[in-house]
Write a structure and sequence with these properties.
The chain is mainly alpha-helical. Helices cover about 80% and strands about 0% of the residues. The chain has 6 helices and no strands. α1 packs antiparallel against α2 and α2 runs antiparallel to α3.
């Protein structure tokens, strides 16, 4: 049986989605121990390190989903840009992924925080671009084809763009944790502890919306119902 380009891309897309959803769930569960004042700082740091190691897989999945989806969209005929455009797209996303991993390698350092901020700045460009192109396409102005039974692709891009906004908020939370743990390393600080707990409560509310959105993106991709 011939293994097609589309089949390989679909397989990678499924893996990226699994790592995204599973990674976010792992960080969600681990974060409860990060803010637990009853645990020693050493124990909390171990949980924080675990959260970072799980989160990098989710971040990798998030970044890879977009070029994989755009590439498959071209093969499905709903995304008209191929050839050199696809090569350029993959090069740009490879650079973004390298930046993301560099921020992970240098986590909990000033360099790591600076790299994380640059990772976030890329999303300031990507998110508006995704929202604008998906909405314009649904209105019939392109760039994506959104005719009969083709709107699913633009809807996926739209929801994905909205999910990146939530993901950006969760990135802010983890970056804040890195800074707060530096404060706590110097000794007990009730104000820092309160900030940690507040950010976790906010993050939990975002996480539930996040999971519903991820499930919606997967459903549209699997059914292509509109």
């Amino acid at each position: 049986m011939l293994i097609t380009e589309l089949a390989v891309l679909r397989w990678l897309h499924i893996l990226a989605m699994v790592y995204w959803l599973g990674g976010e769930w792992g960080v969600f569960q681990t974060s409860r121990h990060v803010v637990n004042r009853q645990l020693s700082m050493e124990e909390r740091r171990r949980h924080m390190e675990t959260a970072y190691r799980i989160d990098i897989l989710a971040r990798t999945g998030i970044i890879l989903l977009l070029p994989l989806g755009l590439h498959m969209g071209h093969l499905w005929g709903v995304q008209p840009y191929g050839g050199a455009w696809l090569w350029l797209m993959w090069l740009l996303f490879a650079g973004w992924l390298a930046l993301c991993w560099a921020a992970f390698v240098y986590r909990e350092t000033d360099r790591g925080i600076a790299l994380t901020i640059w990772d976030e700045r890329i999303r300031y460009v990507v998110i508006p671009a995704l929202l604008a192109t998906s909405i314009l396409s649904l209105l019939g102005y392109g760039p994506f084809n959104a005719g009969t039974m083709q709107k699913w692709f633009s809807l996926k891009v739209l929801i994905f763009g909205l999910l990146l906004i939530i993901g950006l908020q969760l990135r802010y939370i983890m970056r804040e944790w890195t800074k707060l743990f530096r404060v706590l390393a110097a000794g007990p600080d009730p104000q820092a502890e309160s900030k940690l707990e507040k950010s976790l409560r906010f993050g939990k509310r975002l996480a539930y919306i996040y999971w519903i959105g991820i499930a919606s993106v997967a459903f549209l991709g699997a059914t292509k119902m509109v």
